[in-house]
Design goal:
The complex is a heterodimer of chains A (310) and B (291).
Chain A: E1 4-13, E2 16-26, E3 31-35, H1 42-49, E4 57-62, E5 65-66, H2 71-75, E6 78-81, H3 93-103, H4 110-119, H5 135-147, E7 153-157, H6 165-180, E8 185-189, H7 193-199, E9 202-207, E10 210-216, H8 217-220, E11 226-232, H9 235-243, E12 251-255, E13 258-263, H10 268-277, E14 282-288, H11 291-300, E15 306-307
Chain B: H1 2-14, H2 18-48, H3 64-75, H4 79-87, H5 92-97, H6 99-104, H7 110-144, E1 149-152, E2 157-160, H8 166-190, H9 198-216, H10 220-225, H11 230-234, H12 259-286
Antiparallel strand pairs in B: 1-2
The chains are: A alpha/beta (310), B mainly alpha (291).
Chain lengths: 310, 291
Amino acid sequence: MSILKVEGLTKEFGGIKAVNNLSFAVEPGSVCGFLGQNGAGKSTTIRMLLTLIRPTSGSVEIFGENLFTHRSSILKNIGAVIEKPDVYPYLSGYDNLRLFARLSGIKPANSMIMDKLELVGLSGRAHDKVSIYSQGMKQRLGLAIALIHDPQLIILDEPTNGLDPQGIADIRNLIVYLSRDRNKTILVSSHLLSEVEQMATHVLIIDKGRKLVDGPSASLFDPSETVVEIEAVNTDFARSKLLTSPFAGNLMGDRGNFIILKIHRDNIPLLHRHLVQQGVELIRLQPRHSLEDYFLQVTNDKTDAYTYTG
Amino acid sequence: MLTLIQVELYKIFRRPHTYIAFAAITALIVVIQTGLKLDGEAYADFIMQTIKQSFEFEGQLLNGYLVCYVLLQLLLVHVPLLISLIAADMISGEANLGTIRFLLTKPVSRPGFTLAKFIAASVYTIMLLLWIAFLALVVSVWIFGTDDLFIVKSNYAVQLSENDVLWRYAGAFCFAMLSMLTVTALGFFLSHFASNTIGPIVATMSVIVFFTILSTMSIPIFQKIQPYLFTIHMVNWKEFFDQQVDADNVAIAGSLQNPKKIIKSALVLIFHIAGFVGASVWVFRKKDILS
């Protein structure tokens, strides 16, 4: 059974559909990367999943129950950070965490609060007022607040905003840890596609409120479907050598000065060796399989939504 | 619900600007009490100016009860501003901080959240009035002592026996509490329509000023709507300091001149409070959190 199941979710603002008939599901224990360009409808969707916004139509089931009729019991098992996690600046990180824990229905012991602050690297600044926290520290505190009641489903909207590279890596590792070691289900939206690529088990891409892609990352990055771009000093010579090589069947065509092939990722070193042995002067041989490429491809070449399977 | 109220009260009383109102009230009362202590006889002469040919007052005219009455007349007009600093900030302040997003992702019902916030704002209002009562009545009595309360109204004077005053103050403070809770409810309601703090505070004060002006204008068309304006009922705490007279025109101790007027005004204020809070619950239930 899916942890989260969305059917035909639509939200209109003054006749404009911010989210348009969106359907998707998130499976238990998965990390679902939720992607889309600015204004694609990610935040509106997440706000609807957290009952901050009322949908115009559609249904949301979480833990097998209707979100809008079992709101309180469902939210008890959800931890969320929406955009920048604003907290009370006149309270300390510790006091903020205790306050939100009480609203989550628990009375946390001191050790529990300190454990969560330790988890996000804030235990040393627990009793400082949040007004003197950096944006990155507030982001970490927001995550601690989302985790304080040990929720089953964690929804994070841009959790790495304002973090330095080390902070980004820490959050990524935390998300992977929560998913793999604590069996949490995580829906995470981010602009940092390379980060999503490293942690997401599933990807959901939307554009203008409509779903473009939904499915397991493993299928998205099928190693046998790796696209390779080749740039050489003499493109015609390189092409002729490829046409008479074992890679002739992998040729897909040209794009500008690049020759495009689709081969298995494991065969890229063989391709490289072959071309060098044939006297091709390579400028670049670039595998193109990143999420960023894929994202740009699907959002710039929008067709009907499709779902792929691994 | 209790947890929500506790959390809201915790937030209110941990905020530095909560204490602005307490500090302002304390400063005002202390300044007025000091002025009256230093030059109170001149003030008493001023009060008695219009009627000293007709009355001879024996005893201590400038006593703690009179000082308290003077303070209430001066302060209760301005307290709504101090109350709106908190009440009109209850929802808009959370929207401004961005904390409303976090709060509403927690398993709390929206009507429960709204009611808890209103109750917390009401507790603040009541505490502010209790503080005023302490400073204006208890401290004034301590500094100036007690005697009969002599009040000069527009076309008559009232003398209340020293033993007949305290319960009137208790009633007046309870009524003032109702008046100020109406302001709290109004500010709270308006705080649902903005994501900045200043707008609802200014709007609350504007409504009170506008209604007060309408309440005082003797234009017939305005006089028709005046009974429905809550501002006209807010000042009826003063009715506790009027007493009935018997057939010989002798004041009846322990009486109120117009208890029905007090009850009617109290009911009008309660109706307004219920209306504003009910509307707040309705608006917030349907509100999309976009901030």
